[in-house]
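From the shared-data thread, chain only:
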Amino acid sequence: MIGIFDSGYGGLTILNHIRQHLPQYDYLYLGDNARAPYGTRSFDVIYEYTLQAVNYLHQQGCNLIILACNTASAKALRTIQQRNINPDELRVLGVIRPTVEVVPQRTRTKHIGVLATPGTVASESYVIELLKQAPTLTITQQACPMWVPLIESGEHLGDGANYFVEKYLTELLARDSLIDTLILGCTHYPLLQSKIETFIASTNRRISIISQGEIVANSLVDYLQRHPEIVARISASSPSRSGGCLYLTTESAKKFEESASLFLAEPIRAQHIEL
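Structure, as tokens:
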């Protein structure tokens, strides 16, 4: 069984793509919605919360866990991999490295913009990983603290969201007018992609937008092809082998079910848990 963790609902965008590519496994999705958003919290708190979620998913039978949260991937993944897990029993993967691996092939100007939460920006994980891929890149980050609250409150489709989309993109492009590739460095942000594209079109710029869902799913398929021992573990713990998913939340189950409809094309049932 594969576990998918996010601080909120954005990880559902990753889950959707993974299930489409790997329908033969069972899934357990955990949203720590009661303590979201993670983006403005400290490194220590995010590490503690993420480790609690990883331990819980492992106890429920997940042998492979995807941190479908950029903030958790940036601030907690490496420490958890190094200190807290036995790789012979559990693998924990993030979403940042698969994303940056495709960037060098997408950019013409070698100027990259990263749109992310304040926590992800402060970690500089995208800067570090991008420069590992291509040391000549010029990277400009933009914190977008209002985007996740807008999305999780259902206000992202309204005209009010346009102000914050335009505000953050204007600030970013004013700092580097040569940006030709934008990374949506939060799993919530695909829900704003149409507004982002509309604004960019209004500036008459040619900018490629990198969204994580398909990229992370393809990367996971490749990872499993290279690790048959992991395939054996998650197959053994996926009794139905039907691509089914159980949804867990630290918030109200009813609220999760209602809000998840923004991200999923199907009705779901969720269960409340305590971490």
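Strands lie at 2-6, 27-31, 64-67, 91-93, 111-116, 138-143, 181-184, 208-210, 245-249, 270-272.
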